[in-house]
Write a structure and sequence with these properties.
This protein has helices at residues 14-28, 66-74, 76-80, 104-115, 136-149, 164-177; strands at 3-8, 32-37, 52-58, 83-89, 121-125, 128-129, 159-160. With 189 residues, the chain is α/β, with parallel strands linked by helices. The protein has 2 domains: 3-127 and 162-177, Rossmann fold (3-Layer(aba) Sandwich); 129-161, no CATH class. The strands form 2 sheets. Strands 2-1-3-4-5 form a 5-stranded parallel β-sheet, covered by helices on one side. Helix 1 (14-28) packs across helix 6. The protein is globular, with a radius of gyration of 17 Å. The two termini are 21 Å apart. The model is unreliable at 182-189 (pLDDT under 50).
Length: 189
């Protein structure tokens, strides 16, 4: 059994939902997993308590959450010595035209380059349009983005575009790659 932590940054909750889903799959494979919102790390948090780390973050306005960038940059040396994976969540993944997705890879590459982190595995998943959580201006902006992308713009409903089969494959592949290790202390957040 291996101890993993999933650290995530989420704005409207889709990245958190994906992180918890991944944790469930890894647990089904017999491993211990903590899922922690990186915005509020416990005071006693240490990467040394884990054999593996998954970091998840969402892209908004072409940037990941600053607290995720800072966390990864400050811990890049430790992360580079561990078994790690990164997943990115962005509405761009939902665009039907593959050409529209070409801007996504440079954003991921820039994040990894600036933080000096080299995860062994990485994936990108489509997020969601959660109109019910947006203020007036963000709803207006997101409708324009959705219209340009050719996806639904009706703000009276929320829309989830995440490919859960792709998330399952990512989680199962990570679980298979985990090395057995000693059990360590568990804490909940």
């Amino acid at each position: 059994m291996s101890k993993t932590v999933i650290l995530y940054g989420s704005s409207e909750g889709q990245t958190a939902k994906i992180a918890h889903y991944i944790a469930g799959i890894i647990r089904e494979k017999g491993h211990t997993v903590d899922v922690i919102d990186a915005r509020s790390l416990p005071a006693h948090f240490s990467l040394q308590a884990y054999a593996a780390v998954i970091v998840g973050a969402s892209i908004h306005m072409e940037h990941y959450q600053e607290y995720i960038r800072r966390l990864v940059a400050q811990n890049h040396e430790a992360l580079n010595r561990m078994q790690t994976a990164f997943f990115s969540v962005c509405l761009t993944e939902a665009y039907p035209d593959p050409v529209q997705k070409t801007d996504l890879e440079p954003l991921i590459a820039t994040f990894l380059q600036k933080t000096q982190w080299h995860p062994q595995n990485r994936a990108s998943f489509a997020g969601a349009l959660i109109y019910s959580k947006y203020g007036f201006l963000k709803r207006f902006f997101m409708r324009r983005v959705a219209r340009r992308a050719g996806i639904t713009t009706d703000p009276s409903h929320d829309y989830e575009f995440t490919d859960w089969e792709a998330v399952t494959r990512f989680a199962e592949n990570f679980a298979i790659s985990l090395r057995p290790s000693q059990e360590v202390r568990v804490f909940e957040t």
